Amino acid sequence: MTVHAPRPSVRWGAAVAGNSCAVWGSRRSTCTLWHSCSGHFAPAGLSWRRPRLGAEALGFVSGPSGARRFSGMPSDGAATAAAQAVASALESSTASSPPGAGPTAELGWLPTDAVLRLVDAVHEATGLEWWASIVLGTVALRLVLLPLVVHAVRNKCKMALMQPEMLELQLRYKGLGLQRTQEVSASFAREMQDVYRRNGFHPVYSVLPLFLQAPVFMSMFLALRRFGSVFPDAVTGGTLWFVNLAATDATLALPVLTGTSMFAAVEFGIRTQTAETSPEGALMQNIVRGFCISMPVVASFMPCSVLVYWVSTNTFTLLQSAVLAVPAVRQVLAIPQVPAHVMEETARLRAELQQGWPPSAATAPPAEPPRS
Known about the structure:
Membrane topology: Multi-pass membrane protein
Shape: elongated
GO molecular function, one term: membrane insertase activity
Radius of gyration: 42 Å
Subcellular location: Membrane
Strand content: 5-15%
InterPro entries: YidC/ALB3/OXA1/COX18, YidC/Oxa/ALB_C
Number of helices: 13
Helix content: 55-70%
Domain Membrane insertase YidC/Oxa/ALB C-terminal: 130-323
Largest sheet: 2 strands, antiparallel
Order of helices and strands: EEHEEEEHHHHHHHHHHHH
Number of domains: 2
């Protein structure tokens, strides 16, 4: 028997649970589940037929290949197209992956890894080429260390101002003709500490910036040596004649520029210093000059990424020395001026000490005879 019903005037849908059907109304959408109810509903109305059993009752049908699939699933061709769409979406999401999933994802948090993360962050944030990102990262690190440099220069000028007082103290102990015993050394150290305290000077402040900057410079050097292995596109990240940052400069122009910039920075710093140079200091300056002359040979074995950093930091040092030598800048930064007469007095007193201290045993007072 077939029961015909008029088409409902309201929106309706159908759902199948086991072998039964239900009809419900909805105001939002019209939903007809033809795959699951095609055997229960006819276009003209509601028909009662023999209920399906087994897999057919659950909505499974046989495909062209003979395999059973759910009737609501797409066909084999539609499934292939859907798989291709998913693959394309995955490729597009990988191409627009966040920075943390890039080459720096496998890096740790060692100082060298932090340097590579810094350069990569500059590269991603600014869109600059790799060579420009190295330069900008170098400038950023040097600006962070600039307060330490200013403090060291200020402390060095204080030491230059109290040099005459320190040399006079040494001459006074030398004139006493005393041997350098533990008591004499302790007395000399106490008076020297009084001189430091009156002038607001501490010897550690002069070398502390050097100890703090050395790990940073070494980390930059070690990180940029393996720059090409971390960032494969560094082979085209250079400019001008050094396009490949992972290779050495075959023209030797960049190594020569490295040595020249280093020598210029060192020489300018020597000529603008405000303190009288001691013999030991003069010897150290000559050693540094010799190292700068041999620098092109060392730099010829380094990749261009390291040389870009060296040229950048040497140029920054040169400009930094030039700016800190301006009287107006020194006044703003509270760097004391060392008058010329102080330097002349320092040179005179140092010349008097050239004979050495402590004096020899011949000039020392005779020892007391042993008591009987």
